[in-house]
Amino acid sequence: MSSTLTVPVALTIAGSDSGGGAGIQADLRTFAFHRVHGTSAVTCVTAQNTLGVKRVDALPKEAVVAQIQTVFEDIGVQAVKTGMLLNQEIITAVAEQVEALQIDNLVVDPVMVSRTGAQLIDDDAVNALRRTLIPKAAIITPNRYEAQILSGLEIHSLDDMRAAAQMIYRNLGPKTVLIKGGGMQGSLRGVDIWFDGQKLETLTTKQVDTKNTHGTGCTLSAAIAANLALGNNLATSLRQAKQYVTNALLYSLDIGKGQGPLGHFFPLLEN
Ligand SMILES: Nc1ncnc2c1ncn2[C@@H]1O[C@H](COP(=O)(O)OP(=O)(O)OP(=O)(O)O)[C@@H](O)[C@H]1O
Ligand SMILES: Cc1ncc(COP(=O)(O)O)c(N)n1
Question: Where's the Pyridoxamine kinase/Phosphomethylpyrimidine kinase domain (predicted)?
Answer without folding.
Answer: 17-262
